[in-house]
DNA sequence: CTGAAATACTCAGTGCCCTGATTAATTTGT
DNA sequence: ACAAATTAATCAGGGCACTGAGTATTTCAG
């Protein structure tokens, strides 16, 4: 009687979008390497030698999740993990040759997949799609991490 | 050297959007009931007595996931599960009074949360947001379940 | 210089999400 | 009528995502 239309719920839409993406990734990109794993490889191509926490920040994964993802990539020999001699708390991460090769291969496939995924939208709509999602996601993240208060509370 | 900009990857955006939603849901709606759980409650308000598989279809969850979600809702006393006397394979699902109450309460909070979540967009942009995401998700699901071939292969 | 606070990482626990294999019940083809 | 195919649900297994608590190391305040 009081049921609601889930098609007007952004969270529901977001979940369906991600599921659809997951499926397409599996068939068009890789069954071994997932999209978050690719994001980590990509971050380490851009900035070799990052520590674990910073990689998580770059790709939007929390401390626990990034630890798991990195452990999997390490087990598969795609990256190396060494203690920072300057700061014994950190591990510095660097892709192996195999990791670099994998990233190169997947970059090509990912581009193809993105084209297929976004094919239902015109070029103008694709820009809008990115912009609207980015604005909503950024704003929600902002709610979580409020800017520094003007006067530090004591 | 060959790193890619993740902000142009719809899968990455979709994941960030869902994460942002997850956080906001947790703070504004409920720490007990998740968004997928609410979707199941909602489906059973709309159509009491559905079987498990059909609920999964309605809310977009696969057979394994829907089984887990329903088992959790059952443990919390929000729904009942009885074997279909007409078809011994099925379980028929129905909300308890407690389940109905919970759905009613969360419906209000969810509406508030959706407003906050979408606040960065104008009304026109919100419509566009829904439409673009829906089109992409629908198309990708269509790739997965291709329409019946004209001639059934044998 | 030393105790307190902050930081990087790990671990335990919960929940979502998918696939492939298995089990039980029903439907279908002959 | 009955074997074969289909269907609903379960189970095992892998991966993502978050929180709260714990450990080790570094930094900071007095």
Structure description:
Two copies of one chain form a homodimer. The radius of gyration of chain A is 19 Å and the shape is globular. The first copy, chain A, has a domain at 30-118: Winged helix-like DNA-binding domain superfamily/Winged helix DNA-binding domain (Arc Repressor Mutant, subunit A), CATH 1.10.10.10. The first copy, chain A, has helices spanning 10-28, 35-46, 52-59, 63-75, 97-118, 123-144, and strands spanning 79-83, 91-95. Chain A is mainly alpha-helical. The first copy, chain A, contains six helices and two strands. The model of chain A is unreliable at 147-154 (pLDDT under 50). In chain A, helix 2 (35-46) crosses helix 5 (97-118). A two-stranded antiparallel sheet of chain A has the order 1-2. In chain A, a hairpin with a 7-residue loop joins strand 1 and strand 2 (91-95). The N and C termini of chain A lie far apart (51 Å). The structure holds a DNA duplex (30 and 30 nucleotides).
């Amino acid at each position: 009687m009081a049921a609601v239309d889930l098609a007007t719920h952004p969270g529901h839409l977001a979940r369906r979008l991600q599921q659809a993406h997951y499926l397409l990734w599996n068939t068009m990109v890789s069954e071994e390497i997932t999209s978050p794993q690719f994001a980590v490889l990509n971050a380490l191509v851009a900035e070799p030698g990052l520590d674990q926490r910073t990689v998580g920040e770059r790709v939007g994964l929390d401390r626990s999740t990034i630890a798991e993802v990195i452990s999997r990539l390490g087990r598969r020999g795609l990256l190396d993990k060494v203690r920072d001699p300057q700061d014994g708390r950190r591990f510095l991460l660097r892709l192996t040759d195999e990791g670099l090769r994998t990233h190169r291969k997947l970059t090509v496939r990912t581009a193809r997949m993105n084209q297929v995924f976004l094919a239902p939208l015109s070029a103008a709509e694709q820009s809008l799609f990115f912009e609207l999602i980015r604005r909503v996601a950024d704003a929600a993240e902002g709610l979580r991490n409020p800017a520094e208060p003007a006067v530090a509370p004591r």
